[in-house]
What we know:
About 40% of the residues lie in helices and about 10% in strands. By secondary structure, the chain is an alpha/beta fold. Helix 4 packs parallel to helix 12 and helix 9 (about 210-225) packs parallel to helix 10 (about 260-275).
Amino acid sequence: MKKLKTGTLMHIILLSAIVLLFAASFIKLYLWDKSSAEIPTDDFSAENFDTETEDFYVTVDPDRIENHTDDGITTIVMLGDSSLNDYTDESGVPALVREATEATIYNCSFANSTMSTQNTGFDGTYGNDAFSFYYLSMCIMNNIYQIQHTGLESATIKDETFSNKLDLLESIDFNTVDIIVVSYGAEDYLLSREVETLEIPTTYRSTIYTEALAQGIDWIRMAYPHIQFIVMSPTFCCYPEEDGTYSAGDTRKNDVDATLANYMIAAKNIAVQKNVTFLDNYWGIDIHAGNADAYLTESSTYPNADGRKMIADKLTTTITEKIYYEK
């Protein structure tokens, strides 16, 4: 057999490598295009993708608790949307965290609520704005909840828990609260609330997701500087189409040209700016288009019992191990 010259052999090897590279790129592009067109039904794990969680942990700042008298009890207030509100039994995130940490937990989340508001300014015409994080934090700072009472009368999206949650919120002495969990984003995405703007605002605007979060943290810190924050991103969810089908939230852009990931990244940016803990439940919780049927409720928006267990486990680990909150 005639031997190939070294130069010829190297050319063949290089050509073969290029062919393999193009083939691999074509296959990846083909699979990506398939996944972006419809929610896949075959089983796959997020571990197969080159993703990295965006978690950001902040321990207790001694300067913020220097003049605070601790009562020796870990007290947590949870503010969020239906992911925390709709499940008040032992399978809910608040109950699971309570059982694991033995902390006192007040679940002050409201169904279908948002971080941002629909309107600029509150005049009662859109009552659900009163239960956004923006207005809840304002009223927590002032310890006056007239906005929520007005909103309760005109809110078009509410359930029987709203009145009880409002009573609970008014009863809390926030001087005894150690941690506030902030968990919004799915409804902001589905309602196409603006994520952020490029310019640096002179004042925070309630209708923009990131600015509502930033303002809310600032307001509560003004009144209660000792409180730690844990901001949690939404998990993967699906976008309901007009024809009754669902599109994957990781690829479906809403009316402001944003996917669910845009809200997650934007929330982390604010958390880092404000130096508060951030939990990435988008990449950090293994719920995705391939297993949505197994981990989302029938609405395809919020996690089911198995999905909530994963969120509660992560939040518990954060409280007991990552931010080292010990009494």
